[in-house]
Amino acid sequence: QGYKPPAYWEKIQGFNSLDIPVIANGEIWNTEEAKLCIRQSGTSHLMLGRGAVTRPDLIVQVDKIDVANDESLITSTLLWSDLITHQIRFLQGEAKNDVVLVGRYKQWLGMLTKGYMEAQSLWNKIKRQKDKAAIIAALQASR
């Protein structure tokens, strides 16, 4: 199936009788989908993939889930302003060359647009930008 939705979490239930931890994953982008996955799979062990890239604080949010209580309030723990520091550090990091670094950053920023509306605004400003210093300046201005 690869990375195509849907995830068939209910098919995992049959493996819960095994004497090993069963881990569910696939298409978990937010806490609502995590709750649904836990209910359908019958396991509380989740593996987060692309959802954790789009929302780096998703693991903290999932850890606070109360499956029995649909009213449980899960709030974001990592604000865009906090994430900017990490993005700047990434851009200042070591890479084969700046072209590779900027390309990887844009790939990450593209994923972040699914979790942060501020990322979409920044993406629109820098998507054609190739200069690392200009991207860092745009990031700093988006605080």
- Determine Rg (CA atoms, Å): 18 Å
Q: What low-confidence regions span 5 or more consecutive residues with pLDDT below 50?
A: none
**How many domain units?**
2
What is the CATH C-level name of the largest domain? Mainly Alpha
How can the largest sheet be summarized? Answer: 2 strands, parallel
CATH architecture of the largest domain: Up-down Bundle
Helix content: 40-55%
Strand and helix order: EHEHHHHHH
Question: For the terminal residues, how far apart are their CA atoms?
Answer: 39 Å
The total count of strands amounts to 2
Percent range for β-strand residues: under 5%
Average pLDDT for all residues:
91
Spatially, the strands of the biggest sheet line up as: 1-2
Instruction: Predict the CATH topology of the largest domain.
Output: Bacteriocin As-48, Chain A
Secondary structure tally, helices: 7
C-alpha geometry: elongated
Class from helix and strand fractions: mainly alpha
